[in-house]
Amino acid sequence: MIYSLDKINEMAEGDQDFINSVISVFLEEVPEDMEMLEKALEAKDHGQVYQLAHKIKPNVDLLGMEQTRAIALEMETLGKEVGNMDEIKKRFPLLKTDITQVIAELKNDFDL
Question: Under a CB-based contact definition with an 8 Å cutoff, are residues 46 and 17 in contact?
Answer without folding.
Answer: no
